[in-house]
Amino acid sequence: MSDEDVKKADDVVLKWGRDVAGAGFAQVPNYLLRFNQFTSDEDRLSPTELLLLIELAGTWWKKDDLPFPSMKTLAVRCGTSERQILRAVKRLEEIPLLQRVNRKKKGIIASNAYDLSPLVEVLQVIAETYPPERRRKLRDEQGSNV
Predict the structure, then answer these.
(1) Does residue 65 lie in a domain region?
(2) Who wins on pLDDT, 28 or 104?
C-alpha cells in the first residue's frame, strides 16, 4: 500500500469513524449523484431509481464482474417493496441506463446480474458536455498522473 493509499484510508476513518469505515464504502461518481440536474424532465430519475443505481454501483466491485443483488436485497436496502424495485429496473432499462442479464447457478435460475455499461456511457456523455470546474488528479494503472 502506497503512502497515498494509507492517507486516503486514514481520511476515511477520520471522516466516518473506524467502525463505519471498517464496514467498507463504495465509490459513486458525482455525475450519478447529480444525474437529474443534467437531464430533461422526462428522463429525470425518481428517488427510488436513483437509489437503486447507487446501490448497484456500490456492489459493482470489478469492471467485468456484474453486480447481482436479488430484488429482495435491493428492496430492503432501498427501503421499498420488491414490486417498486421491479418497476424501477424496468424504467431504467427503458431509458436505457442498465440492462438485466439472466444468471444461472448450477443450472438453476439465480438473481439477475445488472450491466451498468449503458449508465457509464451516459455519464461519460454528461461529463464531456458538462466538464467540472476543477478536475481531480487521477492516476492510471501504473500510478502515473493522467
Answers:
(1) yes
(2) 28
